[in-house]
Amino acid sequence: MKSIVILDKVDDPTLDVQITRMLDLPHLYRNVYDKPFVVPDHLTDPSHGRSHEDVLSHSGLVLQLSEKIKEFLDENQISNFYQRELESVPSLLSTATKPSQKSEEGSSVTSKEIHNVFKEAIHLLLEKGMVYLKGQQTGVYQVTDQDNELHKLALSIIQEDCRRQRHADKGCHFLHILNCVRQTFGSCISQTVLQRVVDALERNSDIISTMEKYYTSF
Questions:
Q1: Which residues does 74 contact at the CB level (< 8 Å), separation at least 6?
Q2: H or E element at residue 158
Q3: Distance between CA 198 and CA 189 in Å, rounded?
């Protein structure tokens, strides 16, 4: 008697994220991770340590690190990342561990403090819509400006819907576009993220604003 094998298809909601991540890894290793790590000088000098309170309260340091992270992502055209990966980049680590004027002699920086500074810096980018967290469980941050799939989706929604009678005159409202995008990407797409996308599309002359918060395609 021949045995019957029954196969069931299982949908993995994180599969697209994992595939995108695998495609980006060769670029990341070639341009970032395979380069030799150099310990910043001030990390080897105990006299330049700082207290735990200095790290958490130094908003200027967090802002500076946030700007450095943005520059790093832009220069290397990185489309997604894990926080721990940024923590291994020498130039960013050097900024995150920069001693403050309130540092006490003999104090040291812990890995937890460094992790918190990076977390706060990335949070600033989240608030500005420069990055978004694609799935809480995956821990993968997506760079908005480098997300071609998101830009193409927003553009296609505007193009297709503006052909319909209800959107032909005024164009598509921002919240309508947001709702349609979220049907594909989920709630991880905030209004600030989408606003950054439509602003980029408008700068590229792919779309035009007909009135406040309404957009149409050429």
A1: 145
A2: helix 148-161
A3: 13
Distance CA 132, CA 103 (A): 33
CB 171 within 8 A of CB 187: no
The C-alpha atoms of residue 132 and residue 143 are separated, in whole angstroms, by: 7
User: Strands (DSSP E) along 161-206, which ranges?
Assistant: 172-173
Instruction: Render pLDDT for 110-154 as a digit per residue (tens, 0 to 9).
Output: 888 899 999 999 999 999 999 999 876 678 999 999 999 999 999
C-alpha 125/C-alpha 137 separation (Å) is 19
Name the strands in the sheet holding 214-217, side by side, starting at the edge strand that comes first in the sequence.
Answer: 172-173, 214-217, 207-211
Query: Are 218 and 204 within 8 A, CB to CB?
Result: no
Pick from 15-29, 58-72, 144-158: least confident: 15-29
What pLDDT was estimated at residue 3? 55
Residue 33: per-residue pLDDT: 58
Any idea what DSSP says for residue 93? H
Q: Residue 146 corresponds to which tokens in the numbers above?
A: 């480098």
DSSP code per residue over 9-72: ----TTHHHHHHHHHHHHHHIIIIITSPP---GGGS-GGG---HHHHHH-HHHHHHHHHHHHHH
pLDDT at 99: 63
In 71-154, DSSP assigns E strands to: 80-81, 131-133, 141-143
Give the closest residue to 144 by CA, choosing from 177, 82, 204, 188.
188
